[in-house]
């Protein structure tokens, strides 16, 4: 039994979810949409802040591996990922500070609405993210990175699931990167948001360390495999994977919100 009475069998299922989340997160982001619901189900006695904090620990471990892999192989532009990471860090700290005020029941409806919009936008624009076509000069890229970092970072600190996907979408749709380069920048920004949230959550004593470290170890393995797959397969693979994953999340979360299944 580990943390809040989690049995070995439940922990094993969480480890599987952590591996899947790490893979998904490394390719297109959104691993939290696998990992967070699993933690919510497995830890019914935990508060929302404890679940969020534990999810952040596991995600931070995995995204460290995927971010390093992308950085070494894709070489993203520091002019974009530098301000993006800084603003994402600050935004995430702000979001984490208000996380305890967000009711548990509000999580899924909010995520569902955002996912439907994201998925539709990418699906009906088939050329989106096929190659890098920057829409702004340096100053415009800086503004886009600052705004994206603050807004998505705040969301990540307050809720979290889908953050990587939202970073990818913003970098593709707003800045003009291809999906692979956007994923590289997103992983770096996501690392910053996870660390920032933990800066707030750890002093609060919100992290369930036993569960978080076990799921995090699996997340590391999934992240490593996912990042290497994305780099080797390219932007086209990342785009298709993005659409499939977002569609699956919409069906699952939509069914739960509408009461089709528990």
From TrEMBL:
Cellular compartments annotated: Cell membrane
InterPro entries (alphabetical): TM_pro_TauE-like, TSUP
GO annotations of cellular component type: plasma membrane
Membrane topology per record: Multi-pass membrane protein
Keyword Ion transport: no
KW Chaperone (keyword) present: no
Primary subcellular site in the record, as a coarse category: membrane
Regions that span the bilayer: 50-71, 83-103, 109-128, 140-158, 195-220, 240-261
Highest taxon in the source lineage: Bacteria
Pfam families: TauE
Record key words, sorted: Cell membrane, Membrane, Transmembrane, Transmembrane helix, Transport
Protein family per UniProt: Belongs to the 4-toluene sulfonate uptake permease (TSUP) (TC 2.A.102) family.
Protein name: Probable membrane transporter protein
């Amino acid at each position: 039994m580990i943390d809040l009475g989690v049995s070995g069998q439940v922990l094993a299922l969480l480890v599987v979810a952590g591996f899947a989340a790490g893979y998904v997160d490394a390719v297109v982001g959104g691993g939290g949409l696998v990992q967070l619901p699993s933690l919510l189900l497995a830890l019914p006695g935990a508060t929302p802040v404890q679940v969020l904090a534990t999810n952040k620990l596991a995600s931070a471990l995995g995204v460290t591996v995927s971010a390093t892999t992308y950085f070494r192989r894709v070489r993203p532009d520091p002019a974009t990922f530098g301000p993006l990471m800084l603003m994402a860090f600050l935004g995430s700290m702000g979001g984490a500070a208000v996380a305890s005020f967000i009711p548990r029941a509000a999580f899924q409806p909010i995520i569902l609405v955002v996912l439907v919009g994201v998925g539709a936008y990418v699906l009906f624009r088939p050329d989106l993210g096929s190659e890098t076509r920057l829409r702004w000069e340096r100053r415009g890229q800086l503004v886009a990175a600052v705004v994206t970092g603050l807004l998505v970072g705040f969301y990540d600190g307050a809720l979290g699931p889908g953050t990587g996907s939202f970073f990818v979408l913003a970098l593709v749709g707003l800045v003009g990167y291809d999906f692979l380069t956007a994923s590289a920048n997103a992983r770096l920004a996501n690392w910053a948001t996870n660390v920032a949230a933990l800066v707030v959550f750890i002093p609060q004593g919100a992290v369930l360390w036993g569960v978080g470290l076990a799921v995090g170890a699996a997340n590391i393995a999934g992240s490593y495999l996912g990042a290497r797959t994305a780099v080797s397969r390219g932007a086209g693979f990342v785009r298709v994977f993005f659409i499939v994953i977002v569609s699956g999340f919409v069906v699952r979360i939509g069914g739960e919100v509408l009461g089709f299944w528990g």
